[in-house]
Write a structure and sequence with these properties.
about 270 residues, alpha/beta, 6-stranded mixed β-sheet, globular
Length: about 270
């Protein structure tokens, strides 16, 4: 029996958790990335060999600083794409965050694969944002690369950072024959399921699949899962916060018992930080 999706509890595609749920499905992510590459006239196509939704970039090595990525995909040619969904205003802080993620993914290849610098794979940071960053991005898709400042020549092909401004589509008329990559971006602007259904194509297109996964996520069973997910993440953030505090207190040579009283961590957890 299907469960109705109530408007006041609707979690849109632009919601961080909904986005991770929908785009962690391989068929959706593969199609979306290939549509993106086609839109920017790339000759590359994607055959995804690994997807890591909401996961530490370095999960098993605590000596290497870790970051979270919304979706991290490893392609068949070894290249890495990190996708970040920003539903609120995109500022310099968010730009620096994505740049840090991209740089960390690039450098961590040395630790993960024990490869040489010359054999490292490209990392692409694909950021979906609702605002025009610094008011200088004229297009829906804007690419940032390293260039020679005077000659304006690209000097590096190891990293590419894209800002995809889906908010721009609010001012553009919809046409049924538009590129599907653009139609999917339109779904990020939708606040209700009814708005999304206006873009349904009535077949087995990726647009229809995305809408179906959003509907599925918003069913009652998924909402319960969402609540548990939020609770777990809140607990995880509190633990990470306590670890940072404990580390600072250790650096100040404070007593272990005092650190336990302040953070609630165990003696073993605190000693492991030394």
């Amino acid at each position: 029996m299907s469960v109705n999706v109530l408007e006041n509890t609707f979690s849109p595609l632009s919601n961080d958790l909904t986005f991770k749920y929908v785009f962690s499905h391989e068929n959706i992510l593969k199609s979306f990335l290939n549509l993106f590459l086609d839109y920017i006239d790339s000759t590359v196509t994607c055959e995804i060999v690994d997807i890591t939704p909401e996961s530490y970039i370095i999960p098993n090595n605590k000596k290497i600083k870790s970051y979270f990525g919304d979706i991290v995909a490893t392609l068949s040619n070894g290249d890495i794409i990190s996708i970040e969904m920003y539903s609120n205003k995109f500022s310099e802080n968010e730009y620096n965050k994505s740049f840090a993620y991209m740089s960390r993914l690039f450098s961590n290849q040395l630790y993960n694969n024990n490869i040489s610098y010359k054999n490292m794979h490209k990392v692409i940071s694909l950021n979906l944002i609702p605002t025009n960053y610094k008011k200088i991005n004229k297009y829906i898709v804007n690419c940032y690369k390293y260039k020679h400042k005077i000659l304006n020549i690209e000097i590096d092909n190891n990293t590419e950072l894209y800002l995809v401004i889906f908010d721009k589509l609010k001012k553009m008329n919809y046409t049924k024959d538009e590129h599907e990559f653009i139609t999917i971006l339109r779904l990020l602007n939708c606040k209700t399921l009814e708005e999304m259904e206006k873009y349904q194509k009535g077949g087995k297109s990726i647009v229809d699949d995305v809408i179906e996964y959003v509907r599925e996520w918003n069913l009652e069973s998924s909402k319960n899962g969402l609540e548990r997910y939020i609770e777990e993440k809140a607990e995880e953030r509190e633990t990470n916060k306590s670890l940072v505090i404990a580390k600072n207190m250790l650096n100040k040579k404070m007593k272990i018992q005092d650190i336990i009283d302040v953070t609630g961590l165990t003696r073993k957890e605190i000693l492991s930080l030394k």
